[in-house]
Structure formats: C-alpha cells, structure tokens
User: What shape does this take?
Amino acid sequence: MLNLGKKILVAIDGSPQSDKAAEEAIRMAKGTGPRFKSRVFALLALPSMRVPSFTDFFPTPVATELPDWEEKRKRIFYVVEKAAAEAGIELQPEVVYGDAAEEIMAFAEQENVDVIVIGSSGAGRVKRAFLGSVSTKVALHARCSVYIVR
Assistant: This one.
C-alpha cells in the first residue's frame, strides 16, 4: 500500500474526547513514516462573536482578546502540541469562530484535508436527537473521510 503524507484535521475543545482524538490524529500522522510527512491542523471552533446592538455600550470582547486567553489556549492545545512535539509531527493550531460543525467542514475544504479526526460527543440518544452533535454533523456532511474517536 502506498502511504503518502496526509493533511489531517483534528477538532479540539479541551474535553477528554478531543484529547483522545488529538492523540489518534498524531498517531495517524506518525504512521505515514519519515519519508512522507503528514501535516496536522488542530482546530478550535469557538462560538460566534456576538454582534453588538445599539444598547451595548460596552460589547463583550471575543475569547481570544480576554486577559486569560493565553492560559486557556495552552490548556486546550496542550495534549495535541505535546504529542506532536514528541512525534516530530508538523502541527498548525487554528482558532475559528462560528458553528463548530460548519467551521470544521469549511476549514477542511479550504485546506484540502484528507481526513477529519473528531472525538465522539458522548451525548445520550435523546439529547443527540434534539440537538444533534458536532461529530454526527461532520460525519454526515463532510466531503472527506471522518474518523470519530470514542
């Protein structure tokens, strides 16, 4: 089997499921070997920025502009950055705003990603039926392969 370098997108949010997905994405990238290096994108999708109305005299700053952002960023990206550094894998961390599933799929298409690695939500059947889950939406609508880690 010909094993060429791949572009791998891992969706992270700091949860244990996303940490497992990050470790699996790095394992996949490492599996391509030293000759064909894979590239991993670690994508954090934050909720959309609120549009200020005329009643907002002091609009809330976005998460990346808050004073404690760098500490939060380090905690969220810690597992994937550590695993990538240990494996010698090129990692590109990204932060986007919007609906998580939509942003993951848009980024994957923009970067021509080969596979999306995402953690299972762990939501129950009833909750998933009413709200849906990011992993389900991505698996159903992405134009590339999707690997859901449990």
User: Anything to note?
Assistant: The chain has a mean pLDDT of 85.
